[in-house]
Specification:
heterodimer; A: 494 residues; Ribonucleotide Reductase, subunit A; three-stranded antiparallel β-sheet; two-stranded antiparallel ribbon; 12 helices; 7 strands; globular; disordered N terminus; B: 190 residues; alpha+beta; Aminopeptidase; four-stranded antiparallel β-sheet; 3 helices; 16% helix; 20% strand; binds fe (ii) ion
Chain lengths: 494, 190
């Protein structure tokens, strides 16, 4: 990797911490010594053109010349990014695993204390492959869903962030495909093909989860998706980062480093929407409406309610036999497993969980091992609350008394203990009639979505922002906010 | 699983009942415990609560003749279990249970279900039975089936016309999130 001194690309800082450099001379950049395994290298080079076809067909629709993107050039403890303008289809998608710790031990389950696995144990092969396929299916799905968003970007800065997230979700697909190719033989290669054949919204071969088959039609939805749903993925990565299967753990650890910026995009995207709305509310001394050119706060709340509730469904049922088995066999840990102060085996542990009985939300005690989906979901909910606090700070700073909030965990759920019940955002179990009467105020209606969509007029002038969103505080990699982060192709500007 | 291929005559008088609080009870011992040895490993004791979503298939008189279970974990990982009472084989109960489980998965916005057949005497028979019903996969691995085609949520109709230097005092890597940098999960600020 050459260090470019072009002032436009920004000074790349010296790397710190142990560094395993990435080989960019290879067709597939990697730090796994791909050149040392010809068969694997050839197999992945065979998959590469299929990936590029997929990117060109189902990746971002807006024609661009190039985009100011980061690529990883080392995966040392502190990470190190290189930024430059690159045509997106020439982005160096590669295979980057976090540093190996040769002494790493399994931290939980029945194999606790044994050395981490460098190969897949036969007995766990099917389960591990399934976990990798499911993770791999979500990564490209969001790229497909967000395909047309570039056409309505509120600024060039936001457009760049969208594309950065998109190319990295593509890289996350690479990360899973590498594992499938390297460790699961012919079956793994078949699954890698399938990951490109299932497509978001395809009726015959959709993505695995319904939630990943809907087009993202506006930028508020994109920010909410990135905040709630991408975060959901982050929590799953956090459990796989603990896996006894070391290559999976190291893969996910590096993916989590990339996710930091994705989380930033979601959090501050919503925050900037709220900031702008709050500004108008303050100036008017009352409610802001679509006529004011901003997104009314109650519509922001409805979008929040929707995205939070569908993201909660992604965790599966509160109780699951498989989740317990994954844990006991060492395939998948808990969020921050090593920081937990218990025996990391959990055979005798219990916890409380909510359920609905006789129109009431009650609690029961269940074995901890059966409730690990819920354990992860609780960690996620606590994290979600942090962003809401940040957003409310904008309202407080504007001297307003209105606040956003996370709806009750039982609200609008299709999966788990609440699935066959209606629960209001405040957590009251209600009947069909009360649900029908209230739902228009809780979830975005067609009309709400149409009105938001009507605000989505592209702003492609450097440094300018659509009136419904505040500018960010700083730019990317020390560049000014008005930097030319994206060069549109001629046809993109028409 | 103990079901064998049966004609398309899916028993029409069966009822599908969701168990609000599933426990390991006498009916389950009879139906699931009646399967060939090794078909299931469900190490539960009497009266123990069961994880997952459980449903029973009941005949006109209310007697349990089959069970279905859906076990879902992160990302739409949905495994099914189905069992038919040894006294009600080849009467369409298995097909009924499978059909209903598929509908349950689809209602949860899940597009694929999977099943893995444990190594037991009737493994090949069960594999054939599932393949006939649309599952794909090896006898010793995951069998997967697309479910709920067309049952998608309606789509919204609306359509829109460095950085801090390395070795910073707080120890975070170059860039920080807001600068677009790579940041260890322990240090995430957003
Ligand atoms: Fe990702
Ligand atoms: Fe992401």
């Amino acid at each position: 990797m050459t260090t470019v001194d072009d002032p436009r690309t920004g000074a790349a800082p010296e790397p710190t911490g142990p560094v395993s450099t990435i080989d960019y001379d290879e067709r597939i950049p990697n730090n796994v010594n791909l050149a040392g395994d010809r068969r694997l290298q050839r197999a992945l080079e065979g998959w590469q053109p299929k990936f590029l076809d997929w990117w060109k067909t189902l990746g971002p629709a807006l024609p661009t010349e190039d985009v100011y993107l980061r690529t990883a050039i080392a995966v040392g403890r502190d990470g190190w990014a290189h930024f430059e303008h690159v045509p997106m289809e020439e982005y160096r998608w590669g295979i980057f695993l976090a540093e190996q710790n040769p002494d790493r031990q399994i931290a939980f389950g029945k194999h606790k204390g044994e050395p981490a696995w460098q190969e897949v144990p036969g007995e766990h092969r099917a389960d591990l492959m399934r976990l990798i396929v499911i993770q791999g299916d979500t990564e490209p799905a969001s790229v497909e869903q967000q395909r047309i968003l570039g056409n309505t970007a509120p600024s060039i800065y936001d457009l760049r962030n969208l594309f950065q997230v998109n190319v990295e979700e593509g890289r996350h697909l690479w990360a899973m495909v590498y594992l499938l190719h390297a460790y699961f033989g012919r079956e793994g290669r078949d699954e890698a093909e399938q990951l490109l054949k299932r497509n978001s919204g395809d009726l015959d071969a959709p993505r695995i989860l319904g939630a990943f088959n809907e087009e993202t039609t506006d930028w508020l939805q994109f920010f909410m998706f990135t905040y709630f749903t991408d975060r959901d993925g982050k929590y799953q990565l956090g459990t796989l980062k603990e896996s006894a299967f070391d290559p999976l753990a190291r893969t996910c650890e590096f993916m989590l480093k990339e996710e930091a910026h994705h989380m930033f995009v979601g959090t501050t995207g919503v925050q900037r929407v709220v900031e702008r709305t709050a500004e108008v509310m303050k100036a008017k001394g009352g409610e802001a409406t679509f006529e004011d050119g901003v997104i009314p706060l109650d519509v922001v709340q409805k979008y929040l309610n929707f995205q939070f509730s569908v993201s909660m469904d992604l965790f599966g049922s509160e109780q699951s036999t498989n989740a317990g088995n994954y844990y006991s066999s060492g395939l998948k840990g808990r969020w921050q497993e090593t920081r937990r102060k218990d025996d990391h085996v959990l055979l005798d542990d219990e916890r409380e969980m909510n359920y609905v009985e006789d129109g009431q939300i009650r609690q029961k005690t269940v074995p901890m091992l059966s409730a690990l989906n819920l354990d992860l979901r609780d960690e996620y909910v606590a994290d979600c609350a942090n962003g809401v606090r940040r957003w409310n700070q904008e309202l407080e700073d504007a001297g307003l008394t209105e606040r956003l909030f996370l709806p009750h965990e039982g609200f609008n759920r299709k999966v788990g203990a609440y699935a066959s019940h209606h629960v209001s955002p405040e957590g009251e179990v209600i009947d069909d009639a009360a649900w029908e009467a209230g739902v228009g105020g809780w979830l975005p209606s067609e009309e709400d979505r149409r009105a938001v969509a009507a605000l989505m007029v592209p702003v492609y002038t450097y440094g300018e922002f659509a009136p419904w969103i505040a500018p960010p505080k700083t730019g990317i990699n020390d560049q000014p906010v008005e930097f030319d982060y994206v060069h549109l192709a001629e046809e993109g500007m028409a | 699983m103990t079901v064998a291929p049966d004609p398309s005559s899916v028993a029409s008088d069966l009822q599908w009942v969701r168990e609000e609080s599933p426990t390991w009870d006498a009916d389950k011992v009879r139906v699931i415990g009646g399967a060939p040895e090794g078909a299931f490993v469900l190490p539960f004791s009497d009266g123990e609560q069961l994880p997952g979503d459980w449903f029973s298939a009941r005949d006109a008189g209310g007697a349990v003749v089959g069970y279905g279970r859906l076990d879902t974990t992160w990302g739409g990982d949905a495994e099914i279990l189905l069992a038919v009472d040894p006294g009600h084989q080849e009467a369409g109960v298995g097909s009924f249970v499978l059909e209903r489980l598929e509908a349950e998965a689809a209602a949860r916005d899940i597009n694929y279900i999977h099943n893995r057949i444990r190594d037991h005497a009737q493994r090949d028979v069960v594999h054939d039975w599932l393949v006939v019903r649309g599952f794909r996969g090896p006898v010793d691995g995951d069998l997967r089936k697309r479910v709920g085609a067309g049952g998608r949520r309606p789509r919204p109709e609306a359509r829109p016309a460095s950085s801090a230097a390395s070795g910073t005092p707080d120890g975070r890597g170059p860039g920080h999130e807001e600068q677009g940098g790579y940041v260890d999960v322990e240090e995430h600020q957003y």
